[in-house]
Amino acid sequence: MYCLGTSLLHPPFREINFSVIGQYVDYLVKEQGVKNIFVNGTTGEGLSLSISERRRVAEEWVTKGRNKLDQVVIHVGALSLKESQELAQHAAEIGADGIAVIAPFFLKPWNKVRAEEVLDGIQEKIPTFQGLKFSDTDLLDFAQCVDQNRQRQFAFLFGVDEQLLSALVMGATGAVGSTYNYLGKKTNQMLEAFERKDFSSALNHQFCIQRFINFVVKLGFGVSQTKAIMTLVSGIPMGPPRLPLQKASREFTDNAEAKLRSLDFLSFNDLKDGNLEACS
User: CA 181, CA 24: separation in Å to the nearest integer?
Assistant: First the structure.
């Protein structure tokens, strides 16, 4: 299971707070049982950072995660393919365990290509290709990716947290998600139940996760809200998002906290001093 690392920004100028990355690593490992990280992705606001900032963030995660995290994967997608190449080269130089890349998304081909089509013959084009993160709800497309590539040792990582159990049945080998920042422990319980074929318990864990996600989605849920919840649960000051995103409202944070408590995801002992102030 991979966690999508949240960006860490100092208010009011929203500059990166590198000093708490080590604390972040320790929290993920000790509190959530998460030992793999995706850096500079959507949740990390990678595309809102400059190239030099992305390089520095990657360096810090690789350094602080050494001998603690199993894998540090750096997202190198950009609107410029040349910048992606430069970021990929940098990730290799600093000792990252892998890279992930989203294709340019502003100027793009007009035709829609299914993931199963992308994988057809991909190792001939990219010999080092290891797998994909699938973040769509189209389980038919995902299942065809798995079914048509069974002889290859690809990693099939699923990116829709609330549907992970369904993807496991279809052959997902892992997961990448933002909610694992604070629901990692519960998700690990679901994975463990699935592994021992206790499908009833696995389903109950998935339903519990869905209750929270369904609740916050109705309130309006995105990167800003993820940062607020992460600050609330971990006590690590995530700071506000970078513009043009706006910080989560206090009303959202209060409602999310109440829901976390009602689902036993958060107790009063878990709430660190100053968490609420850090969220606001």
Answer: 10
